[in-house]
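Lab notebook: predicted structure, single chain.

Context: the supervisor wants predicted structures on file for every construct in the current expression panel, including those that have not yet been purified. This is the next one on the list. No modifications to the sequence; it matches the entry in the shared construct table.
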Amino acid sequence: MDYQWYPGHMTKSIRQMQEDIRLIDLIIEIVDARIPMSSRNPDIEKLGQGKARIIILNKYDLADERETKKWEKVFTDEGLHPILSDARTNTIRKALLPVVREACKEKIERNKRRGIMNRPMRAMVCGIPNVGKSTLINSFVKRSAAKTGNKPGVTKGKQWIRVSGELELMDTPGLLWPKFEDQEIGKKIALIGSMNDQNLVPEELAEDLIARLTEHFPGRFSDRYCVDETKDVQAILENIAVRRGCLKKGGEADFEKTSRILLDDFRSGNLGRITLDFADEAGK
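Prediction complete. Output recorded below exactly as produced.
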């Protein structure tokens, strides 16, 4: 299938963000640590030209630790001030403010020279759907300041949240871009749950995930489902169906139900820490 999802509200939102960019000092981009490059919206990259930048690798507790370390270096070399976060603990509170001060150091110094003291930095929080932007903001401010959900499209309009005397955040809707030139990117975005699942074919996604993990993370399916990973992709999916009791009348495997279970297990971390973007391939 063609992996693409760009509902009408995203067009409206990117136009609004283009208008709002003049109000902000800093862009905080949230990416999913499992696909640190594929979850970067090129429209946000263009929008942020000339602004201080922080990139938060969210859900890093679900990503392969060695790959995450490599991605930290890649983004540091690009001058993007990376921070790791799992969006569920308050460690981000301690980590973010010092990085904001560093990223906005020149702006803060200019303000001081002009006699502008104690003005909070204003940051636009951006990212594709379902990478945990609102959950992260709520973790930082210790209250439900932003709407959250476990599906893409929960945040529909901008919200300003004052989190301290030093920082104000503008939460924005999750944005994809109109066309994926590389369908590999679309597949990875679909796999982590950043597209509307109703528009996808779960069996295709599940088979793609099996192929990726048996190549790069062997043993995950044998450990989780006690299946033979030396078989072909469809046979592995069928064996998982049998192991999980996902059978139709007559004993036929229910591939759709099995695929949804498999995708849920991947997205929730039940298959272990997995990264689908590899830093050594960045720029190739």
